[in-house]
Write a structure and sequence with these properties.
The protein is 42% helix and 18% strand. It starts with a helix and ends with a helix. α2 (18-30) runs antiparallel to α4, α6 (192-207) runs antiparallel to α7 and α8 (285-297) crosses α11 (351-373). The chain has 2 domains: 3-165 and 280-389, Aminopeptidase (3-Layer(aba) Sandwich), CATH 3.40.630.10; 167-274, Alpha-Beta Plaits. The chain is of the alpha/beta class. The radius of gyration is 23 Å and the shape is elongated. It has 12 helices and 12 strands. The strands form 3 sheets. Strands 1-2-4-3-5-11 form a 6-stranded mixed sheet, sandwiched between helices. Strands 8-9-7-10 form a 4-stranded antiparallel sheet, with helices on one face. Strands 6-12 form a two-stranded parallel ribbon. Bound molecules: zinc ion. Residues 94, 96, 129, 154 line the site of zinc ion.
Amino acid sequence: MDTAARKKRIGERVDARAKALDRLALEIHARPELAFEERFASGSLADYLESEKVTVQRGAGGLETAFIAEAGSGGPVVAILGEYDALPGIGHGCGHNLMGTAAIGAFLALRDTLDGVRGRVRVIGCPAEESGNGKVHLMNGGAFEGVDAALMYHPGDRDEIDPLMLAMVNLDVELLGKAAHAAAEPQDGVNALDGLVLGWNAMSALRLLVRSDSRIHGIITDGGKAANIIPDRAAARLMVRSPDNTYLADLRRRVLACFEGAALATGAELRPMWSEVCEVVNTNRPLAEAFAENARALGRTMLARRPSDTHGSTDMGNVTTKVPGIHPFLSITEGPVPGHSIAFTEAARTPRALETMHLAAKALAMTALDVLSDAALLKRAKEAHDGRTA
Ligand SMILES: [Zn+2]
């Protein structure tokens, strides 16, 4: 079988499983689970792989809700990644119910087509993208060992081949004061909430001065226990993002200074805690071109990034720092719909979303086949990766 015939077969094998994939995507949509708690989603996807006679390693990389399966032999290894965690309050407002499902659809279709190809495909079920940097844990746990290229897609409202995904770091700030009766002995208290609000306002002033491609935002997670007690604890979770690592470091320093100043002013004690950094996505150009070509053959034209567009951040950025990878967006909506919204949650279970999931599974499998069967492509991808990360 030549590559064209194999690609045709990939399409047929995805179509043959379309109903089962739809059912999985809709069931996962109906039972949204937060980061590291995706037991139903990861279990359903792993069960389906096993029903297709695939050996699945559950709990991969030391994460209960991760899984790995591999097919093929020898040669290079291409990984197809799927996510399945949801957001608090709005469920699958990022469409991850469609991603793990597309990944296993792509994996199985390629497995059915690999006979005679030297190389392996590995599907990696990736928990905790919305928070927790699951892929970083998976990398540390060895799940990406030997991987030559990593492919995934993300549902969106525009077909975009090279989205700008920002580097990001979380800052948990905690202010500790001293409780006192708010009416009888306020003079004995140290108001942690006032400290937090002062720092928040300084941060808001800073936000007017930052570059338009960078972001600072957050929520207050603790504002005290009762209105008649001077709060002895207040806390917030902030996110700082930029496509520029040097500028991100500068923003980190300036955000922290807002709360240091507020702590000084109020006498509260500041306890800051930074998360690990979620890195910028480095879209690998040769792999992206191969994906775009396959998407085009399936009827979708991938568009370039618009200068004004920024997306969120993803732990896929850390993967693309290590290995050549892609993270294109495929639209599941008729027009612009913001991510992380109720409207996007609704979009993630429509016929259009499911059709796009089938297309994504095909394009991912076809691109993985390109990587395994075209040594020159993988060589170009590695050269582009080494050139960019050097
Ligand atoms: Zn997402």
